Amino acid sequence: MLYPLIRKFFFALDAETAHGLGMHGVAFLNASGLAGCLAKPVTPCPVEVMGLRFSNPVGLAAGLDKNGDHIDGLARLGFGFIEIGTVTPEPQDGNPRPRLFRIPEAQGIINRMGFNNAGVDKLLENVRAADFPKKGGILGINIGKNATTPIEHAADDYLICLNKVYADASYIAVNISSPNTRNLRELQKDDALDDLLAQLKARHEQLADKHGHYVPMALKIAPDLDDAQIIAIADALRRHRMDGVIATNTTLSREGVEALANATEAGGLSGAPVFRRSTDVLKKLAIALAGELPIIGVGGIMSGADAAEKIRAGASLVQFYSGFIYRGPDLVGEVADTLAHVMKKKA
Fold it and tell me: What positions does UniProt annotate as the active site of this protein (predicted)?
């Protein structure tokens, strides 16, 4: 009952300002031992995916905590895993503000942040200071490229990040699907994807040997793909022995929000309006992969029922970000409870 009141206050502020205040609030509640005021105990639902043991299948999507500043506070809200980033080799400011816009009538958010982050070295400082990974919490690190790096040299940035985060990540997510870094989605095309995955996988194997343990690597894809592209990506994931796929990122479509305020803003649309599109991609990808790789379902989850539909469509885990903004920490418990029942029936 508390979060709707908090949300009313935050929604009266600029979206990015509210985001910063909200994250500081999470940190304060964690430090003061008051995190229980916002979050109830979460139903246990252990699952094993990508060789990792998750306490429950409910994750926080990348983007909310880009620099890993708030890992422990977010973990206290009951997430079974947390994904931080997207992080780039060098710090960058991202796109000019304003760059984050709510569409409350549709429970949507448009962002054109542009991988704003403090750089991979700062993120790793934060990870190493956090208790959550030390206690066995599953922490994904999402990597990308700097905006100033030409697309033909994008692999260099991904390799730098892969080298640096390998020892500190539970799994690594390769983000080639943000619409807010110029030409980034070109990396999803056949030859470019083959080249990138080949380089990443070769380095990945070297790092596994060097560190003496294997860290799974997943690819994050866009929802704006046709059937042929989905099949081609599935084939590339198999061919390069990737460990998982995250479906999906934000959409460039404005279907369902066309007449609403902020709908004409440039950037990726997330939240409820992307649910159907992202779930359709997930379902087609699951068919194409035929169970050979696990899928993390993300995009438009606003309720336990939405998460259950992602699981039925072929996901092994789920994540959300916009749903957390609109529903607050209660969504974590609701989704965990729903999926505990769904997965028990599947078993």
Answer: 178
